[in-house]
Amino acid sequence: MFARFEKIREWFERYVGAFDLSVPMIQMKYTHSRDVMKVGETLTRALEWPSDAAEVGVSACLLHDTGRFSQYRDFGTYYDGASVDHGERGFEVLLSDFPSEAADAEAREVLLQAVRWHNKKNLPKLTPEVMPFCRLVRDADKLDVFYLVRRRMDEGTVGDLLPRHKIDAPLSETLLHEVEEHWSGTYKNASSLLDFTLIQLTWALDINFTPSLQMLEDSGMLTRMRSQFPKEPRIQALLERLFVRVADHKRALVSRNEQPAFGRASTAPSV
Ligand SMILES: [Fe+2]
Fold first, then answer.
1. Whole-structure pTM value
2. Over its length of 271 residues, how does the chain's per-residue pLDDT go in tens digits?
């Protein structure tokens, strides 16, 4: 499997360059794409992925939000529920525009699937060749959104980042109930900033690799977000249980210590 990262990057820059980058919301996704790519570089190093696989993984991270640009141009929103599924939109763009010389067939399939599934609530059953890359992109994407929210909180501009979510509104009862029952939340039940924060906290349970969860914990975001909730017993009890689950999840990841199928082939791990 191989992907030529530089060719993919050139294609991506050309593709994005056709959109109006002076629009702050479009510029934001361009920056996010490159930041997720950088998180992907950090993660593939921490995971000691072979260089060929790392190049495919980092490329997938860069491309993951390809669908966002035409989504915003066509609908003026990033809310998939009111427009299109941006993972599917990105998949379609790559199907028709991705340069064939930039990756072999196997890597192309990985890139297509990683883009398609990066935003779904749950990953379906995928082949062992594709799965690690989908997991990598989902972790890198989540981590960068945590970093982005932290930056915006520090700047006092988090409301601009999440225009659909009311800043001082309380938690939605529907979302609270959903998280209590399922340990995950859907955006259609989220209307306040606290709702979004609660959904984000549940992302920690959907992190796929130990270094990703470690980076998330080291960022201090989980405890910072937790401190923003009201001291009501029901909410505090939920958060307590959620953090116990995160600790359990981390132990499970450490003991799983997944070795992706590609690492056992011909290429030695890079050190
Ligand atoms: Fe996305």
1. 0.90
2. 889 999 999 999 999 999 999 999 999 999 999 999 999 999 999 999 999 999 999 999 999 999 999 999 999 999 999 999 999 999 999 999 999 899 999 999 999 999 999 999 889 999 999 999 999 999 999 999 999 988 888 898 888 878 788 888 899 999 999 999 999 999 889 999 999 999 999 999 999 999 999 999 999 999 999 999 999 999 999 999 999 999 999 999 988 766 556 544 433 333 3
| Domains in the chain with CATH codes | 5-138 (1.10.3210.10), 143-256 (no CATH)
Alpha carbon of 267 to ligand 1 centroid (Å): 30
Distance between Cα 3 and ligand 1 center (Å): 21
Number of residues in the chain: 271
Dist CA 175 CA 161 (whole Å): 20
102 CA → ligand 1 middle, Å: 22
- Ligand 1 mean position, distance from CA 245 (Å): 25
What is the Å distance from ligand 1's center to 231 Cα?
32
Distance 66 CA to ligand 1 centre (A): 8
Q: How far apart are CA 105 and CA 83, in angstroms?
A: 31
